[in-house]
Amino acid sequence: MLSNPGEEMDLLPLDHPRLKKNNFDLLRLLLALTVCLVHATELSGFEALRSVTGFLSSRIAVQAFFVVSGFLIVMSYERSSSLLSYTSKRIRRIYPAYFTVVLLSALGLALVSTQPLPEYFSLSWVKYLLANLTFLNFIQSTLPGVFEANRLPAVNGALWTLKVEVMFYVSVPLLVFCLRRAPRLPLLLLVYALSVGYATFLLGAAAQTGNAFYEQLARQLPGQLCFFVAGAGLFYYLPLFERRVKLFVTLAALVLLIDHWTPLPWLQPMALAVIVLFFGLFLYAGNFGKYGDFSYGVYILHFPLIQLLLNAGWSAEHPWLFLATAVSLTFFGAVLMWNLVEKRFLLRSSHYVSSVETSQKASPVKQPARI
């Protein structure tokens, strides 16, 4: 699957050594745990945990997730033998666990609802189930009588990113189709610039009008597309990135440092992509994939589990025990989700299946990363 003949860097880096030994599994788990820690702090409102949000950012973690997706999903499409193969891999990877979490929440939370069962299983319940199963979480984010006493009544406020992620999946075939027929770099830069411009305009409108709705729109597509495209661009130009990695990382670190005090919205997404993919592709930390991929489970399970702990009346007297309990329960649930649901739907060619087989054979070579 080659792009424009004669264009510089035309040969895709599908067999690049760094795609066989990388840190993406570990990186995504750390990003998911970051979101879990921040949400536990924000949902609880425990003052003693305020320091967590001082050095961790769920916003940056989500943006980093989109960068990694841009790199790996475009690579997955370029590796796929057909559109059907690509679609099958994406559905197998994301939907079984997602369906399980939504269904468990809809059914299991009847036990903690303040409403009688006839009122609980009402039209609102059906609306929640249908909206969330189709990634339209914003239509109905609550269940009758559930978490009404919590600071936020939403059942699973982290699921909004899955809608964006699915839209990325849908857009990849069109994006790659265009990249194969137009000059690659100018097109990537154009999409990147349009995405940043869209988000910048809406954030400016939110600041001027005080209307938070504009800020919410900026978090959706195409506002988040710049992070995805930045990751995709570094996939296509991976050999160049590797040759100039010190320069790229130095400039990216400088941009992010300045952005901390003076926002640089046109440069921040690319700078973040460089740093994220540097840690994903360099400084190899071992074959973490042999244990499985718990990051997705952590991400889609942590919010309702935190809400359940708070609903049980956890007080602010033991904030750090609350945080440790929330993280432990989430990780345990993610391990169960992986072993009982997620890996059962993967193809034998999946990175995680092959990683386990490779580990059992005591081979040091890791198979190409896929998600």
UniProtKB/TrEMBL annotation:
Q: Which UniProt keywords apply?
A: Acyltransferase, Transferase
Q: Where is the signal peptide?
A: none
Query: Is Acyltransferase there in the keyword field?
Result: yes
User: Which GO molecular-function terms appear in the entry?
Assistant: acyltransferase activity, transferring groups other than amino-acyl groups
Query: What are the recorded Gene Ontology BP terms?
Result: polysaccharide biosynthetic process
Q: What Pfam families has UniProt attached to this entry?
A: Acyl_transf_3
Gene Ontology CC terms, in alphabetical order: membrane
Write down what this protein is called. Acyltransferase family protein
Q: Which organism is it from?
A: Gimesia panareensis
